[in-house]
Amino acid sequence: MSKPHAIVIGAGFTGTAIAHDLALRGFDVTVVERGPIASGTSGRTHGLLHSGGRYAVKDQESAIECIEENVILRKIVPEVIEPNGGLFVAITEDDLAYKETFIKGCEDCGIPVDEITPQEALRLEPNLNPKLLAALIVPDGTFDPLRLALSFAATAKKNGAVFHLFTEVVDMLLDGQGNVTGVKVWDRTNNTRYDIHSDIVVNATGAWVGQITKMAHAHVPISPTPGIMVAYDRRLVNRAINRLNRPSDGDIVLPQRRLAVVGTTSFSIDDVDYVPIDRQQVELMLQRGAELIPAIRQAKERGVYMATRPLIGASGPGRSISRTFKAYDHKDLDNVDGLVTITGGKATTCRAMAEKTVDIVCGKLGLNIPCTTAEVPLASYRAFYD
Predict the structure, then answer these.
(1) Whole-number Å distance between alpha carbons of 46 and 303
(2) Which of 29, 235, 308, 340 has the fewest CB atoms within 10 Å of its CB?
(3) Which region holds residue 45: left if phi is over 0, alpha if psi is between -120 and 50, else beta?
């Protein structure tokens, strides 16, 4: 009996995690990506391994997903994670007033949280604002974005998945009833065009999912929402530093290798392939980041970059849109069979997003194969290029 064949469009965190899951469940897997691994949003994240604390008050579904997957990723891919922990710090009286609400939210979501004195916080992180009023420890971490995606991809490849990089999906293959039977692609490495047939196509293109579903005369309700991040040339902190308040612009400072990264903003766009840098937002990151870590003002700007989040919602950006994820079977949504779309979520939840998506794929094909990705250690990211 031949294996079922799945095409995965997109090789970011979610696409590579889906390829890994499908391969473990016995599928023939073809991954199509118009650039290199993690060339879209996944390669432009700030690399926060979420504890769920940011969402524990207003988006508890996302918070619970984050803390559960935080624990799993630490176990299956420790090579790419810096398990350095995180601090939520109060700088103003308004921040301080949020503390009890935050603690209760964390407790409700199962997120470990401990209060330490401002003096203890300054001992741990000497570059914190010395005027801080309170500090709470949560199990945040940081990860290397490219290496995380490569680890999933390397493991999928080891188990038989085939990657077509620099290969763009230009259209869907449809049967006489309008159902998806594969994709038409353009291989940019040699300027050839060809068709790939499959039993199922998974759309894991993040902020670009709408462009893919349109090819199948289908749709998905997301709001592409970019955010700007600024990297500075000094590693000023060793933990993830969060503002103890409702999520807002410039309220995170993260360590990444020898840098400090401040993020992020949230706004709307018309074209996901063109997100210009707004210098006012860069200045805002400096201003807000310096409220947490004053020494940022003495550091040099190393780089500015954007990531476009595929937030679930019919229209409009904003911090109120849920950070959870949803997988759509387009047979149910648009009466178009053969296509499943996954969108929303966080880098931290990519494994869970893959599990949910592949569960739907298996259900559609009448297969009862359990997911094992929470227990299977990932291969080294280096192995993708072996």
Answers:
(1) 12
(2) 235
(3) beta
Closest among 239, 211, 273, 250 to 83, alpha carbons compared: 239
Domain with CATH 3.30.9.10 in the chain: 48-143+223-312
Q: Which fold has domain 48-143+223-312?
A: D-Amino Acid Oxidase; Chain A, domain 2 (3.30.9)
DSSP 158: H
Question: C-alpha angle 92/97/101, rounded to 5°?
Answer: 135
| Backbone CA torsion sign across 59, 282, 90, 111 | positive
Amino acid found at 54? R
Q: Is it the case that residue 294 has pLDDT exceeding 80? A: yes
- Which residue from 261, 262, 265, 260 is spatially nearest to 249, judged by alpha carbons? 265
Show the beta-strand stretches assigned E in 148-239: 162-164, 167-174, 180-187, 192-197, 200-203, 222-232
Judge if pTM exceeds 0.90.
Answer: yes
What pLDDT band is residue 49 in, cutting at 50, 70 and 90? very high
Q: What is the pLDDT of residue 4?
A: 98
Contact 373, 354 (CB under 8 A): yes
Residues 232-272: pLDDT tens digits?
Answer: 999 999 999 999 999 999 999 999 999 999 998 887 777 78
Instruction: For residue range 70-121, list pLDDT tens digits in order.
Output: 999 999 999 999 999 999 999 999 999 999 999 999 999 999 999 999 999 9
Q: Which string of b and e fits 253-281 if b means at least 16 CB within 10 Å?
A: bbbbeebbbbbbbbeebeebeebeeeeeb
CA 159 vs CA 21, 24, 29, 198, 213: distances in Å: 10, 7, 9, 18, 28
Print burial letters for 121-142: b (CB count within 10 Å at least 16), e (below 16): bbebbebbbeebebbbbbbbbb
Q: How far apart are CA 102 and CA 136, in angstroms?
A: 10
| CA gap 319, 204 in Å, rounded | 23
Per CATH, the number for 5-42+146-220+323-385 is 3.50.50.60
pLDDT in tens, 129-187: 999 999 999 999 999 999 999 999 999 999 999 999 999 999 999 999 999 999 999 99
Q: Specify the pLDDT at position 224.
A: 80
